[in-house]
Amino acid sequence: MSLKLFVSSVSGNMKIKERQAYVKRILDSLNVQYEEIDISDDANAELKAQMQTAARSHGKPVVPPHLMRDDAYLGDGDDFSEAVEVDTVGAFLQLPSAAGAENGNKDLIKSGDTAEKAAE
């Protein structure tokens, strides 16, 4: 099962860039393997369309970041941040060992910070 992180390398919006960096930092900290898909690259047009369709079907805006596991839509950056805050990232990402992935989640955010604050 492949985890896909949809990002844009050419976004001029600082909040989007920070949210993308936040998601990548958490995934990397948890040693979660993922495929980063740059939706601004024309070579990824088909995957971009798939992500946009999935995001819209869940009532989400199509601005990155978004996460999918194979063809299943998991959520956007806000959904991911919420999973970090409530210590359910493993379940959110549908990791095989969700309980083990949850271990130490709270240490990833500096004490007193929230996911929103980290993404701002």
UniProtKB/TrEMBL annotation:
One Gene Ontology cellular component annotation held by this UniProt entry: cytoplasm
Chain intervals for the UniProt region annotation (Disordered): 101-120
InterPro entries assigned to the protein according to its UniProt record, in alphabetical order: Glut_rich_SH3-bd, SH3BGR, Thioredoxin-like_sf
Pfam families tied to this protein: SH3BGR
SUPFAM superfamilies according to UniProt: Thioredoxin-like
Basic and acidic residues composition bias: residue spans: 104-120
Similarity section: Belongs to the SH3BGR family.
Protein known as: Glutaredoxin domain-containing protein
Organism: Macrostomum lignano
